[in-house]
Amino acid sequence: MAKIKIKQVRSKIGCPKQQKATLEALGLKKINSVVEHEDSPVILGMVEAVKHLVVVEK
After folding, report:
1. Would you state the torsion angle of the CA atoms of residues 42, 10, 31, 33, taken in this order, to the nearest 10 degrees?
2. Which of 3, 17, 36, 44 has the CA that lies 20 to 30 A from 57?
């Protein structure tokens, strides 16, 4: 599977607990932090839940 880079571009302040937990599970702790994950359905579902807070690169 391909790798994707996920970068947090907006703050999690004011977001519901579930979205904060999703960012934490992805490994994103601060704005402008970048993580790399496999392109799996689980990861893509997590990204979809917080798509307004992150940017994804293939």
Report:
1. 30
2. 17
Range of the domain at 14: 3-57
Residues paired with 55 in a beta bridge: 7
Is residue 57 within 8 A of residue 34, CB to CB? The reply is no
Amino acid occupying residue 45: G
Structural domains of the chain, count: 1
In CATH, what number is assigned to the domain containing residue 24? 3.30.1390.20
Phi/psi-derived region of residue 45, left when phi > 0, alpha when psi is between -120 and 50, beta in every other case:
alpha
Q: What are the structure tokens assigned to 22, written together?
A: 């999703």
Report the pLDDT value the prediction gives residue 38, as an integer from 0 to 100.
95
Taking the whole predicted model, whether its pTM rises above 0.90 is answered as yes
